[in-house]
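Annex B. Sample input.
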Amino acid sequence: MYNFKYQVASSAEDATSKINASDEGKLLAGGMTLLPTMKQRLAMPSDLIDLSGASLTGITASEKTVSIGAMTTHDTVANSKEVSTAIPALAKLAGGIGDPAVRNRGTIGGSIANNDPAADYPAAVLGLGATVITNRRSISGDDFFKGMFETALEEDEVIVKVDFPTPLTASYVKFPNPASRYAIVGVFVAKTISGVRVAVTGAGACVFRATEMEAALTKDFSPAALNDSSISEDGLNADIHASAEYRAHLVGVMARRAVAACE
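Annex B, continued. Sample output.
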């Protein structure tokens, strides 16, 4: 690990100020990705601006929305009565991230800001049609994820919270890597007042919506409706864990299981 200057931000605005005043500063949320990267000397930020003092934690639920502060840990979401009551699929998703050490340190804001291709939370954001609230603006989940490890965030922009609309029903099912628990393929299915949404993580370079499956489920919200739907393997991830062809197959399997869990 290279030398760096450690600072604690007192607010989102203070974090922005500290980032702008640094040479190559980085925001630190849970650190589950950034710190290992620094230890391997793959990243060398001049400053780390810790968001733990920025008062960005907490969960509030209304009849239509569940709002989760950016620094809220996965474990907190997984064990939240508010989340479990309003969006059980979201609580289950959070409880399946990594291991207890990761769940007690990792945060929702850090996860979606990093946008790992195999992360779970991006599927929930896209699948539920959530809105990412920063210290500057509101960003639709459909517009937030841009590509591998790439989002719509500016370098000095800070996620404050994520607003999740309460769905009529929803489920998340993933085929996890047995070591890391990252999704080799994960599918989030939601029936909302505005329509059916299907978000896929782990399969491609970035989380994406399976529009063909959405159309099929709009006509018939049942696992059988997806029997004739398929995902092209073109452009899908291929590595030592799974080929693109296998991932394409898994998308269909996980999607049908997710729909079945909604019934």
